[in-house]
Amino acid sequence: MFRRSGVLRRVEAPVALAVAAACLMVASLVPLTVLAAEVFSGGALRVLGDTLGEARTWALLMRSLGLSIAVTLGALAIGLPTGAVLGRTDVIGRRAAFLVLAFPVFLPPFLLAFGWFQLFGTQGLVGSAWTSGVLFGPAGLIATLALAFAPIVTAFTALGISGIDPSLEEAARAVSRPHRTLTRILLPLAWPSIALGALIVFALTLSEIGAPMFLRVRTYPAAVLSRLGGIGYAPGEAVALVLPLLAVGLVLVFIDRRLIGRRSFASLGVRSRQLTPMALGRARKPVSAAVWLLALVSLLPLGALAGQAGASGMADALDWIGPSMGTSLAASALAAGVITLVGVVVGHALARRRRGALALDALVLLTFIMPASVLGVGMVAAWNRPGTQFVYTTLAVLVLGLVARYGILGVRALDAVFHQSSPHYEEAAAAFGAGFFRRMARVVLPMHGRGVFAAWLIAFVFCMRDLDAVVVFYPPGLEPLPVRIFTLEANGPGPVVAALSVYHALLTAAVLAAGGLVLGLHGARNTKS
Amino acid sequence: MTDDRVCLALACVALAFASGCDSCDSQANEATAYTSVDQVFSEPIFRHCEEAGDLSVRSLFDTEETKSTGVLNRLIAEADHPQADVFWSGDPVRPFLLVERGLVAPYRSPNAEGLPGAFQASDGTWTGFAARARVLLVNSDLVSEADTPRSIRDLAEARWRGQTAIANPLFGTTTMHVAALFSVWGDDEAKAFLNRLRENEVRIAASNGEVKRLVVSGEVAFGLTDTDDAHEALAGGAPVRVVYPDQGDQGEQDDLGTLVMPTVAVLLAGGPHPEAGRQLIDCLLSAEVEGRMATSAAHMPLRAGVDVPEHVTALSNIEAMEVDYASVARTMERIDPWLREWVGL
User: Fold this and answer.
1) How much is the average pLDDT of A443-447?
2) Nearest to A450 by CA among A266, A197, A273, A185
3) How far is CA A36 from CA A31, A51, A54, A236, in A?
4) In the prediction, which pLDDT does A288 show?
5) Mean predicted confidence (pLDDT) in A294-302
């Protein structure tokens, strides 16, 4: 058998990173570069000054930034305590509450806004002119999105806390009360994870378009869409409008690097998690009640949609669902697979501070905060060519678009996962001559199998919920389920549209349940071994 | 073992792509149609055309928010390598934007013979059929018969302050309606009217469908929307009344007429399957499709002899606004910057 030389072993890691970089560049940099080149070769530089010189452009940007900050603070206010409680305490029905709370984040916010409308519209279930006035405005938008995105903070807080070395927690619990252990030890140690959650919430809010349009709140992405989906097709102006967002993205990268990235993650060490949850004592029942109340509130819009759908709507929707469910599943599974593979390489390189990883991380972050419609038009510009029809007219274009949009999830989630283990294990394997691929296959991936699968699962359900990106370039006859809901929403029978939304929720729930089962089995197997 | 798993995974990936690669070797009798007609109405028509002829239709629909312009802009973005054979437009104006750019191939369908000449291009670049109208949808629980508004000017009346809604004029048929007002009234009067709407706190909804929802739910007293949206509200048993505005029964101030908008079929230049595209257009322009659109979507047939269901007002019973669609299309592009400013985007 061929025995690899030391030189070959040394280049394995750079080669793997180069391949991952190529994937990310094909998915995100190529469309944006082609679009920019087309736009600027068409004399768009002239419109640049005009577009960015308008006061309302900057006013709208400030307004969107303000809304995004408010939503992020709201999500932190809800998600941080919930995540801390669910992550480490003996709250009643902890796992079930976590699943219920996390669920709405995997649905397009537009559907949740639609559900809230069924409740708080003037003639909603508990609606009045006042509730309607609040819902259809900035306050309603902030509340809707904060509730929708809070589970992201909850999940990252819980995951961050659960990844902390149990020895640190045991030592703290030996000398202090549980709440002090939580606030003084666990939360500060989990800060990088929490901050990442906040960053994702901010970026999602900044690029969200469906919910603000439905709740009649003017935002910056709507201004971009008006240049791409309005009467005067003006991609040049849209690209000009993206430039301030790139600046915002660079600020986020800076904040991330300076305030988050350099804070060290605690290491899991060789111990598996076998800590008993912290006892809440007399506070257990009220805290549990509060957590479950919040979980039920977050499900209210879904309940309203289910109520509107009714049995007949659920039956009729089957005539309208078409192949969209299969398209959603196939495109999301494949995209999540690519995102995870790329995330394993880039996330590992990021965790081990390899050269080039930071640049790739910045690329996926900038693509993530960019309005999805711009990425979508870039996909059309890049892939609708005679030689690339095998991409543009097939599932491949959906996969590429989703990888571009959600690449950050794989990179960041797996960066956090790999940060949890000491590099010494890999160094020990390297000392015995194991190259990069062998170290990954024999040491890193077996140690973090659950984390890698969880990253795939997160990427999968985010791809499933995507609407804003794929709606611009999905091939005829291959529309994913959220797109079908959105296009049928125009004059489609209300119960059918509501039922399709419920089917989407059920599909997501089934995927999460199956994923949870796999993670649970894997965890149980690890505990036994 | 690991190698086996990798092979299995790669095989799955290849299979998944292959399953989504129908269009890689698309059939000769397969037409690709982009449409801004509501999916709930257009998809059954495409299925009908598939069943009626040896034809397969791959379709792409617009979302409610970007109605009429999202798909149109995709056609423009794809101009260098057209993917679609047919554009079935929900209004008669946007196809002109394609004609101006040379993206349309003339086609005179034999089935267009029964359609009025006013609703088709002399050079065969577009053919109109199954029309909608712009109507006022009034919540009958909130507005008595006597107080029912009769003109679109009522949207600017102080007594309705904060109680009316229109869809975002940057998208959908509202754009065409506003452009038609600019064409008929002139810029100054139209701008003054829109500014009065803003002062009167008219709600700018995301779409005509949302205008319907706002009226049905009682969020507003009345709103400006399309007949198909109004029909959906009526079919759902909502407490609403449909008013064809500006019919001249209130004197000179409302003699503008109701804006009528035929849907339009165009054959796209350079499409992958022109013959299948023509076949699809023939089907769309048939009397049977006009009848189906009348029944399911309350669209008014343009040709004589098509049975009109009870809930559909016949074109001959409406005082239609006199507009030149080509002129409205030019106006629409011209006023776009002003409209964006008016909306605040």
Assistant:
1) 88
2) A273
3) 9, 16, 21, 8
4) 92
5) 86
Confirm whether the ipTM is greater than 0.85: no
Mean pLDDT of A300-304: 86
**CATH code 3.40.190.10 region(s) in chain B:** 27-130+261-314, 132-259+333-343
Domain definitions of chain A by residue range: 54-305
Q: What is the DSSP letter of B320?
A: B
CB pairs under 8 A between A and B: 181
This prediction's pTM: 0.80
What CATH number has the domain spanning B132-259+333-343?
Answer: 3.40.190.10
Q: What is the CA radius of gyration of chain A?
A: 23
A233-247, A493-507, B32-46, B206-220 — which is least confidently predicted? A233-247
pLDDT score, position B7: 47
CATH entry 3.30.428.10 includes domain A54-305: no
- What is the structure's pLDDT at B67? 44
Q: Which residue among B20, B26, B340 places its CB closest to the CB of A330?
A: B20
> In the structure encoding, which two tokens stand for residue A166, read together?
């149990």
Instruction: Supply B317's token pair.
Output: 């019973």
Residue B171 to residue A480: CA distance in whole angstroms: 23
The 3-state secondary structure of A182-251, one letter per residue: HHHHHHHHHHHHHHHHHHHHHHHHHHCCHHHHHCCCCCHHHHHHHHHCCCCCCHHHHHHHHHHHHHHHHH
3-state secondary structure of B333: helix
Both tokens of B191, joined, read 């701008």
Instruction: Look at residue A370 and tell me whether its pLDDT is greater than 80.
Output: no
pLDDT at A157: 86
Q: CA-to-CA distance for A299 and A13, rounded, in angstroms? A: 45
Q: How far apart are CA A402 and CA A27, in angstroms?
A: 8
Distance from CA of A123 to the nearest CA of B (A): 5
Instruction: Please judge whether B20 and A477 are an interchain contact, meaning their C-beta atoms are less than 8 angstroms apart.
Output: no
- What is the rounded CA–CA span in Å between residue A431 and residue A447? 19
Asked if A60's CB is within 8 angstroms of B344's CB, the reply is yes
For the stretch A453-481, pLDDT in tens is 989 998 998 899 888 788 888 999 899 99
Half-sphere exposure of B186 (CA within 13 A, CB side): 2
Count of other CB atoms within 10 angstroms of residue A429:
17
Rounded-to-integer distance, Cα A123 and Cα A138, Å: 20
List all residues of chain A from 376 to 435 with a beta carbon under 8 Å from chain B: 377, 380-381, 384-386, 389-390, 392-396
Domain B27-130+261-314 fold is: D-Maltodextrin-Binding Protein; domain 2 (3.40.190)
The answer to whether residue A144 scores a pLDDT higher than 80 is: yes
pLDDT tens column, A73-122: 999 999 999 988 888 788 898 888 888 888 888 777 877 888 888 888 87
Shortest CA distance from A377: residue in chain B? B77
pLDDT attached to residue A32:
87
Expressed in angstroms, the distance from the first to the final Cα of chain B is 58
* pLDDT value for B22: 45
In this structure, how many other beta carbons lie within 10 angstroms of the beta carbon of residue A125? 12
Contacts of A282 by beta carbon, 8 Å cutoff, 6+ apart: none
Amino acid at A209: I
Report the pLDDT value the prediction gives residue B23, as an integer from 0 to 100: 44
Locate tokens 């199998």: which residue? A449
Sign, CA dihedral A322-A324-A327-A328, equals negative
Cβ burial of B199 (10 Å; 0-12, 13-18, 19+) is exposed
The mean per-residue pLDDT over the stretch A411-437 comes to: 85
| Adjacent-strand bridge partners of B153 | none
Distance of CA A33 to the CA centre of its chain: 24
Q: Would you state the structure tokens that stand for residue A226, as one six-digit string?
A: 């008006």
Low-confidence stretches of chain B (pLDDT beneath 70): 1-28, 63-69, 250-254, 345
What gap in Å lies between CA A242 and CA B171, rounded to an integer?
Answer: 21
